[in-house]
């Protein structure tokens, strides 16, 4: 069984990395095919906040145990998600996402493993993407396993809760978390929707803390790391093991690891190059300067 993704007690500690510039990254990555591992930091320029960036407010991501074990918690979650998912649904890819598309088109990038659920890599045009933690636009029944679209569920929730969206105001004025959870408090009268096929509990098709990433998905991700000559981390603090394990694996198998992220990451001690910066500008620079692999 692969390790569960769960909240971590890791606290940031500075690690000295000798190579810290884009010049260093270009030197290390030139001539190699690259696999990218992306996190919430690559989507901040699209207006989706991250969990652990230097300017992020403290957040406590929901656990799988909370969701399945507490009916009141699920009601509160679905009320907030009913507002927040619309924000994610209308966001657009940014320059960082588009830069990875161009690297793939030039055969420099083998593919992307993303910890994000926002589908912005696919929207930008990336072809090889492993959505490690699932995707925000689908919902699964925990009883019968049926999968429905989030759009369809939105129609049902709106019918069950007339006037709710209007009562909370414009979604543009509400704080949204990276998992499409809107920060609103008045949810006491919200009615969640059961599965229309069996009456079971519906859950976003997203891997929560305390829940296993499906084995087949993890195996495909390891294979994608193995298929390339280097690993590029873009916009992830690597706080949870679900992403860090790929950095460890790359380092243990002798592949250079380049990390681009604002602030300290849990993977810095494995980094060949660590660039403390936003992802969009750095990735665009790599597109301009990296030659195709030999």
From TrEMBL:
Binding site for NAD(+): 39-59, 115-118, 235-237, 261-263, 279
GO molecular function: histone deacetylase activity, NAD-dependent; NAD+ binding; zinc ion binding
Entry-linked PROSITE patterns: SIRTUIN
Keywords: Cytoplasm, Metal-binding, NAD, Transferase, Zinc
Enzyme nomenclature, EC number: 2.3.1.286
Cofactor note (record): Binds 1 zinc ion per subunit.
Gene3D superfamilies: SIR2/SIRT2 'Small Domain (3.30.1600.10), TPP-binding domain (3.40.50.1220)
Catalytic residues of the enzyme: 133 (proton acceptor)
UniProt GO cellular component terms: cytoplasm
Presence of the UniProt keyword Membrane in the record: no
Major enzyme class: transferase
Record field: catalytic activity: N(6)-acetyl-L-lysyl-[protein] + NAD(+) + H2O = 2''-O-acetyl-ADP-D-ribose + nicotinamide + L-lysyl-[protein]
UniProt subcellular location: Cytoplasm
Coiled coil spans: none
Ranges for domain Deacetylase sirtuin-type: 14-293
Database matches in InterPro entries: DHS-like_NAD/FAD-binding_dom, NAD-dep_sirtuin_deacylases, Sirtuin, Sirtuin_cat_small_dom_sf, Sirtuin_class_II, Ssirtuin_cat_dom
Cofactor: Zn(2+)
Annotated binding of Zn(2+), by residue: 141, 144, 195, 198
Protein family (similarity comment): Belongs to the sirtuin family. Class II subfamily.
HAMAP family, sorted: Sirtuin_ClassII (MF_01967)
Function field: NAD-dependent protein deacetylase which modulates the activities of several enzymes which are inactive in their acetylated form.
Protein name as it appears in the record: NAD-dependent protein deacetylase
Species this protein is from: Promicromonospora sukumoe
Gene symbol of the encoding locus: cobB
């Amino acid at each position: 069984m692969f390790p569960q993704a769960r909240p971590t007690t890791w606290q940031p500690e500075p690690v000295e990395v000798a190579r810290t510039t884009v010049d260093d990254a270009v030197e290390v990555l030139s001539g190699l095919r690259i696999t990218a591992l992306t996190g919430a930091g690559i989507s901040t320029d699209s207006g989706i906040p991250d969990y652990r960036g230097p300017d992020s407010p403290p957040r406590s991501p929901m656990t799988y145990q909370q969701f399945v074990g507490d009916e009141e918690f699920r009601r509160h979650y679905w009320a907030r998600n009913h507002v927040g998912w619309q924000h994610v649904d209308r966001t657009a890819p940014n320059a960082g996402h588009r830069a990875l598309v161009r690297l793939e088109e030039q055969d420099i990038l083998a593919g992307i493993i993303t910890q994000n659920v926002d589908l912005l890599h696919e929207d930008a045009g990336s072809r090889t993407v492993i959505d490690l933690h699932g995707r925000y636009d689908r919902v699964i029944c925990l009883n019968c396993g049926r999968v429905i679209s989030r759009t369809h569920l939105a129609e049902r929730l709106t019918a069950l809760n007339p006037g709710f969206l209007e009562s909370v105001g414009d979604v543009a004025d509400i704080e949204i978390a990276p998992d499409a959870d809107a920060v609103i408090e008045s949810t006491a009268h919200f009615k969640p929707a059961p599965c229309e096929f069996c009456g079971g509990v519906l859950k976003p098709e997203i891997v929560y803390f305390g829940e296993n990433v499906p084995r087949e998905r993890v195996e495909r991700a390891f294979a994608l790391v193995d298929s390339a000559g280097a690993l590029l981390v873009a916009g992830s603090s690597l706080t949870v093991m679900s992403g860090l394990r790929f950095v460890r694996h790359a380092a243990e198998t002798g592949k250079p690891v380049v990390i681009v992220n604002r602030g300290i990451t849990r993977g810095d001690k494995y980094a060949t190059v660590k660039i403390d910066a936003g992802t969009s500008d750095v990735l665009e620079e790599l597109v301009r300067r990296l030659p195709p692999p030999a």
